[in-house]
Amino acid sequence: MVATANNLVYERPEGFTDTPTHYCPGCTHGVAHRLVAEVLEEMGVLDKTIGVAPVGCAVFAYNYFDTDFVEAPHGRAPAMATGIKRVLPDRIVFTYQGDGDLASIGMGEIVHAAARGENITVIFINNANFGMTGGQMAPTTLPGMKTTSSPNGRDVETQGYPIRTSELLATLDGAGYVVRRSLHDPKNIRLAKKAIRLAFETQVRGLGFSMVELLSTCPTNWNLTPLESLKFVEDKMVAYFPLGDYKVSPLVAQVKV
Amino acid sequence: MTRELWEGNQAIAEAAVRAGLEAYFGYPITPQTEVLEYLSRRMPELGRAFVQAESELGAINMVYGAACAGVRVMSTSSSPGVSLMMEGLSYIAGTEIPAVLVNVMRGGPGLGNIAPSQGDYNQAVHGGGHGDYPRIVLAPASVQEAIDLTMLSFDLAEKYRMITMVLADGSIGQMMEPIQFPEMKPVQRKDWDWATNGRMGKRERRLLTSIYLDPYQEEKANMRLLERWKQVQANEVRYKEYFMDDAEYVVVGFGTAGRVSLSAVRTARQEGIKVGLLRPVTVSPFPLDVIDELVKRVSGILVVEMNSGQMLEDVRLAVQGRVPVEFYGRMGGVVPFPDEVLSEIHRMISDKVPSKLSPRDAWFERMTAVK
User: Any chain B CB within 8 A of the CB of A173?
Assistant: First the structure.
């Protein structure tokens, strides 16, 4: 059936380029990308947005967004975003980072960007492993979870405990808006979009650092089907990484979206 | 213009301001911290960006971001900090954007000390970050020259979309000398056709990256860097010559080692020795052709450095064994005295039969004997 104005219910947002996805079937990166593109379009800020891509599966994020983009070294996206935002304070600057990028090699940069209250927005994809390199253990890998570098399951005695990044960053006074959402079902996807909107509104109003952590799937490296992966997020990930608002500064709380 | 007494680090900072520096990102490390301190006051007073970063990694990536936005941006550090910045330098080079970095070198390796050194020559000129990339490296020998080269570095970085490093050392950074500042240049945000500063209703989206998954595209990018480097080599070689008109022997040294050597050369001249000094100002691009010409008219070359003979290899490359090359170096933050260089000049001239050892081995043997 040909799409017409009468039967068209879903189309590519303006914020997207016409590029076929490189992500694996069932991966929720695509959903997260779409939510960001929709929000930027709805806010009418595509024209003045500069994205910062990470190293990891989303290294090619710049292929999909119809905005200016730069590609950061592994973990350094918040520092790069700081450099851009400080010289172009009227632009919208966001980073899009995975858990290896943000919570492992880039922990220093993210903590200090939040502490400085940089007016940038961070979209943080937590899928509990290093996806791009083939599913190694990340700081977010659940206790007992098997990865290619914790083949017998993450042993917390020798490999430590997962890091709850949102809770950690929420302790910093520079953070204006830090929340965790999930992409495992339509209801949560809608809540995630609302949070992404509020994060960018935080930046527009100059209310400090904003981050939305999104619990995401990695069917390929988890060795699960896409549906099983969604179930894993709902049952296992949410249990360890509770959804919620970890920091909503009083001024951000007044913002209605 | 009035002459003023300024410390090297603060003078470098003010020179960058006068060159139109729009953003500075740095981290404290001796002996360059005064640059950071000075700009923490000066930049906000002018409404320009200043951030004390969480680390040199953070600082260089802030530089990377601001450089992508198309503004004049700089960081400064000293040896261990510059090592941390090598990741960012490689990315900046791969992205083909301009940025300025000042290295106020100190003794090493490792934590080393905070005394003046030239131990980072190879890192600055030949090595550093991963991958193949050229970079411009300017070596001042006085506070005035540090000012002039800092200002020049922004123009060169932008002209060639290339990292430009000012390679100073702790003595240049810490010393106070009478200087003259050039006029303040206004901040001019240029409308670069590559900057990622938002489409702003004027153009298609832009991407700045150093990733080329297709090796053939990456090779093309490497070729592009080399083509630009050819232009730099053809246009930007800078050096200073002293007492060279009738020189039969020549001392080659850059930065502080060149300056110390000049004192020795002056004394030698008073003794009637026909010796001159060649001081490379651009150590990258290196004045290979200048040395190639020198070889045709001098009887010996003495290389003096505050390291174990790093620039020595570049001099030997130009000399190609046609005249004897001698080396004298002090390491680990030790600065040679003019007397030491003068003795080396005497020795070079009196040694009728050159040593069979390589210049570095011969020097090392002499150093060991002294101990």
Answer: no
B371 pLDDT more than 70: no
If pLDDT is split at 50, 70 and 90, which confidence band does B353 have?
confident
B130 at A interface, C-beta within 8 A: no
Instruction: Kindly determine whether residue B208 and residue A112, on different chains, have CB atoms separated by under 8 Å.
Output: no
pLDDT, tens digit, for every residue of A131-180? 999 999 999 999 999 999 999 999 999 999 999 999 999 999 999 999 99
Comparing alpha-carbon positions, the chain A residue that sits nearest to B21 is A87
Integer Cα distance of B104 and B149 in angstroms: 14
Q: Does B82 touch chain A (CB under 8 A)?
A: no
Does A111 sit within 8 Å of B196, measured CB to CB?
Answer: no
Distance CA B346, CA B312 (A): 19
Please report the pLDDT score of residue A1 as a whole number.
Answer: 60
Residues B283 and B187 in one domain: no
User: Which of chain A's residues have a Cβ under 8 Å away from the Cβ of B43?
Assistant: none
Pinpoint the alpha helices (H) of chain B: 8-18, 33-45, 56-68, 79-95, 121-125, 143-160, 170-174, 215-235, 255-270, 288-295, 311-319, 338-350, 359-370
- Which phi and psi angles does B288 have, rounded to 5°? -60, -45
Tokens standing for residue B343: 């003795």
Q: Which structural domain, as residue segments, surrounds residue B358?
A: 239-370
Residue A61 at interface with chain B, using a CB cutoff of 8 Å: no
- ipTM associated with this complex: 0.96
Is there a contact between A46 and B61 if contact means CB atoms under 8 Å apart? no
Q: Which of B183, B215, B235 is the last residue of a domain?
A: B235
* Cβ contact, residue pair A86, B23, below 8 Å: yes
Nearest CA in chain A to B57: A76
pTM beyond cutoff 0.90: yes
Average pLDDT over residues B55-82: 98
Task: Measure the CA–CA gap between B152 and B18, rounded to whole angstroms.
Answer: 11
Q: What is the pLDDT of residues B135-168, one digit of tens each?
A: 999 999 999 999 999 999 999 999 999 999 999 9
Distances, alpha carbon B49 to alpha carbons B11, B89, B196, B218, B239, in Å: 19, 20, 18, 34, 34
Is residue A10 very low, low, confident or very high in pLDDT (cuts 50, 70, 90)? confident
- SS3 category, A97: strand
CATH of residue B61's domain is: 3.40.50.970
What average pLDDT is seen over chain B?
97
Pair B220, B163 in one domain:
yes
Q: What would the pLDDT profile of A90-105 be if each residue is shown by its tens digit?
A: 999 999 999 999 999 9
Domains in chain B, number: 2
**CATH (domain of B243):** 3.40.50.920
Mean pLDDT along residues B280-303? 97
B289, B319 in Cβ contact below 8 A? Answer: no
Go through the domains of chain A in sequence order and give each one's CATH number.
Answer: 29-253 (3.40.50.970)
Q: Test A84 with B25 for CB contact under 8 angstroms.
A: no
